[in-house]
Amino acid sequence: MKLGVTAWKITYERDGMNLGMQAQIAEKLGFDSFWLPENHFSGPLAIPSPLMLLANVASVTNRIKLGSTSYLLPIRNPILAAEEVAVLDQLSNGRVILGIGRGFQNDMFKAFEVPTSQKRKIFKKNLDLMISAWLGEPISILEDKEILLSPLPVQKPFPTIWIAAFGPLALKQAGDLGLPYLASPVETFNSLKANLSEYRKHLVTEDNGLSTKTPLMRTIFISENKEACNKVKVSLAKENAARFRTEETRVDNWAIVGPRNYVLEELNKYVEELGIDYFIARGRIPRIDDRDQIKSHEALTEIFP
Questions:
Q1: What is the mean pLDDT of the chain?
Q2: What is the CATH superfamily name and number for domain 2-303?
Q3: Entry pTM
């Protein structure tokens, strides 16, 4: 079992020093990986270029892996993307976990002139080209001209890849590619169970040499103080009020908040019933003090080392 953690504080200035300090704390606590999302045009805390921020994190850490929760392939030139990922893998000495996705914001696709109806096709085409480039295969750019990627990634045959997926078509694509499926952090337990079943119907056999990990991102907050836990639940409920309006989607069905014994029991349920073998603790809980967030992360590494 492995534990990862997302950045728990993103400042308006995208303070690289602050992110580096968070990653150093996570590394000291024993987390296996440190994650950043990608989002565009979503206000002052948008993260349009997670790899640039992770390059900064790489420079101040030694062991912890560097993850992108959803590096959006359809909006990128695949050769340039392959180069940037390879450079980050070189800078970090092979610590990249590339979580990739398609995206869902219509405004983003319009801004980058990508037809929404073609996003899965473009995603697959770009991923195939990036993998070929990482393998050192010649890439044809004209009828009589080929190029070779340089530098190549440290990881062989290529950097670790996970796919963020939601919906039957995306789940099928992840399974067909034989890559781990990284679920949305706000999928309910029952929804996650159904989606994992759908994904596994399409999952190719293990003899392709790809990772067969079953990762899961969840908002996790640990405190023995009942009032503090209630404050977190209220904050999460308000943040997601427009999305979740039914009993099935109340906070307890997609977040794990409570004292140590309760959190351990819930995590074990995911392990035993769903086969989860890699948890990513999602931070950035609104209106929660940094010290309480760090104490929660420390407790998580103690109960689930």
A1: 90
A2: Luciferase-like domain (3.20.20.30)
A3: 0.92
